[in-house]
Amino acid sequence: MCKRCLWLDESKPDYVTYHDQEWGVPIWDDRKLFEFITLESAQAGLSWYTILKKRENYRAAFKEFDVQKVASMSDQDVDILMDNKGIVRNKAKILATINNAQRFIEVQSAFGSFAKYQWAFVDFTPIINDIKSKDDYPTTSEISEKFAKDLKKRGFKFLGPTTVYAHMQACGMVNDHDNDCHRKQPLISLIETLDLAKQLRK
């Protein structure tokens, strides 16, 4: 039986799938990064599993996470979303998603891609943390503080240091799998054979 991270509730098959297949895998695709930015900002103040269960509803509600389409959503769209029981019906978070899409596009224009902007905060190399117990899990870091501060300066909303750190974990900027987790070493090995800076220049 393979070992998994201590935080994972293994009684939830969809949570196990997310942990085994996605959490901590490096992402440099902008649509996927916008998806995680959207889901993490929606999660603020809630459990991640709450949002994970609503993920497909978010995908449908927010145009398959097409950032251009989300950035163009209207007040009428907001009203429709407020009636959508499949997502978190928090108007401030819905408006923040539309705002963040607009800001996301501005970052793409300035840096060539959001991925280039984001990964520069860790010099295009994932940080590998030493996780031996539940007490070792970081919830924020000096880099997430810097990243969140820069996002705020650029006009992003609902993306404070803790939320940004969760985003960093999800998309592989940090490897916070437990030392004994079966996913820890494969992701380390992946990075050893992957030139992220080269991938982002494509």
UniProtKB/TrEMBL annotation:
Biological process according to GO: base-excision repair
MF terms in GO: DNA-3-methyladenine glycosylase activity; metal ion binding
InterPro entries reported in the protein's UniProt record: Adenine_glyco (IPR005019), DNA-3mA_glycosylase (IPR052891), DNA_glycosylase (IPR011257)
Keyword Transmembrane helix applies: no
Keywords (A to Z) from UniProt: Metal-binding, Zinc
Binding positions (Zn(2+)): 5, 19, 177, 181
Keyword Metal-binding: yes
Highest taxon of the lineage: Bacteria
Record protein name field: DNA-3-methyladenine glycosylase
